[in-house]
Specification:
Largest sheet: 6 strands, antiparallel
Strand content: 15-25%
CATH topology of the largest domain: Nucleotidyltransferase, domain 5
CATH architecture of the largest domain: 2-Layer Sandwich
């Protein structure tokens, strides 16, 4: 690696397939955290996106500001270039669970390679949030830890307030980037711990650590190693840790190892005919959190007496019931994410899989053409890419008189006013796209909670009036 790129996003909502990025902020540093450059990109709200009221009152970007900024196509290409600069390690706070996924879908619908920033040209990714969990557990003296309702909060805004990491409003992208960079500097001061955790984001090193976990026992499935899975997946109520038993690799997704939680009360009620009902498996991708620590006493004992007892009893029970263990392993190893019938093209990144070589060439050619060339090229692109390309042009006010672009825009706008019982575009999880009626309902729910300050009240009022005016409601 030659540089870190700390970044953060503000978005119109939580759905990477149907929402959009509104603000991108980044600071590039050398590997000693010395700032080299910074970037802030504000993106114009697309005509086919409705902002979620909850997002609006969180980042507090006024509607008139949302109407300004760069076109999405131009902005996303710039962001793609930043993350794909040779030797870039891109990272932020909880980016692997949110921001990185958002960018992946943004790259995809703008006909850009969605994964190259993970591996190409010496680039890779990391996340400061899971590192912070480890420091909270094993080096708590490095930070002041905020508490809410008697429990430590690892939200960035609370860590910032407690430790004075950066000044400015929470949920402003640049403020969050500055806070994350300051946090990383503090964590990296514990050099040995930092280097150990950073190595976990390397697929080979992470894989080697998993291979070195001790064997619990063997079954018809093979060797079962065990350890203490540590990360956000077990949840704060469980102290971010869970005892786990290895079940091997997923068959359809070879980059996923499977880890059966041993701290669940219902595991011994498992029916071999219905193993998914009472077996809780965490899927771990190579070089990504959560990380599995060896069951050394300093890690295992942190689980507490009750979890220790439950884990040992469950492990002994599984060993005595090879038929149940085989059923659990077979189900989870063979499990495939369900294909969503009628999935929207914007959401089909995972279901479609990697683009063919021919499609990659078509995307690359599309970006080099002027508008006339792009419009002439539309009928020649594969059907899946044609829809994405036509939508891209519509969203950015390009070639709107072309019949394919015009039809794409008409369909996109019509779905925003779909009523109850009407079919909505589906994302990869089967969820529907936000409509204007969803926006009105969410505004009512937020108001009913009665926790708004004056600025938030005005923002929601402006949004409500804008929706009525835009859609003649």
């Amino acid at each position: 690696m030659s540089s870190y790129l700390f970044y953060d996003l503000e978005t119109t909502g939580l759905n990477p397939a149907f929402d959009q990025v509104l603000q991108f902020a980044a600071i590039r540093t050398d590997m000693a955290f010395q700032e080299l450059e910074r970037h802030e990109i504000r993106i114009r709200l697309r005509p086919d996106v409705l902002i979620a009221p909850g997002a609006l009152i969180t980042h507090r970007i006024p509607l008139d500001v949302l109407g300004m900024g760069e076109l999405e196509y131009d902005a996303i290409r710039r962001i793609h270039s930043l993350l794909n600069t040779r030797g870039t390690l891109s990272l932020g706070y909880n980016t692997l669970n949110f921001d990185d996924i958002f960018l992946r879908f943004a790259f995809y619908r703008n006909l850009l390679p969605p994964y190259t920033h993970q591996f190409s040209s010496g680039c890779s990714r990391m996340d400061v949030f899971p590192l912070t969990i480890f420091y909270h557990l094993f080096r708590p003296e490095v930070l002041n830890w905020p508490e809410l309702d008697g429990r430590v909060s690892l939200k960035l805004e609370n860590l910032n307030r407690e430790n004075g990491l950066a000044s400015g409003m929470a949920h402003d992208a640049m403020v969050d980037v500055e806070a994350t960079l300051a946090l990383a500097k503090i964590l990296a001061s514990e050099k040995e711990m930092w280097e150990y955790l950073v190595a976990g984001f390397d697929k080979k090193k992470d894989g080697l650590r998993l291979d070195q976990l001790p064997e619990a026992f063997q079954s018809s499935l093979g060797i079962h190693s065990y350890g203490v899975l540590t990360g956000s997946e077990p949840g704060s109520k469980n102290g971010y840790q869970a005892p786990v038993l290895g079940l091997g690799q997923s068959i359809p997704y070879s980059n996923q190892s499977l880890w059966l939680r041993l701290d669940t009360e219902d595991l011994q009620k498992t029916d071999p005919e219905n193993p998914e009902a009472t077996s809780f498996v965490i899927r771990k991708r190579s070089g990504e959190p959560p990380f599995v620590l060896p069951p050394a006493s300093r890690f295992w004992e942190r689980l507490g007496d009750e979890k220790n007892r439950l884990a040992e009893e469950n492990m002994a029970w599984l060993r005595s019931r090879p038929d149940v263990l085989a059923s659990i392993g077979k189900y989870h190893r063979q499990y495939r994410y369900p294909d969503i019938e009628g999935i929207d093209p914007d959401a089909a990144l995972y279901q479609k899989g990697f683009l063919s070589k021919a499609e990659q060439i078509q995307c690359s050619d599309f970006h080099t053409m002027d508008l006339a060339g792009k419009l002439a090229f539309l009928p020649e692109i594969s059907m899946d890419l044609r829809t994405l390309a036509a939508r891209l042009l519509f969203r950015n006010g390009l070639g709107e008189q072309h019949p394919l672009v015009e039809e794409a825009g008409r369909q996109q706008m019509a779905s925003l006013t779909a009523g109850a019982g009407e079919s909505l575009p589906k994302d990869w999880r089967g969820g529907g796209r936000r409509t204007v009626y969803h926006v009105f309902d969410e505004i009512k729910e937020i108001r009913a909670e009665g926790r708004l300050d004056e600025e938030q009240i005005q923002l929601l009022h402006a949004l409500e009036e804008d929706m009525k005016k835009r859609f003649s409601l």
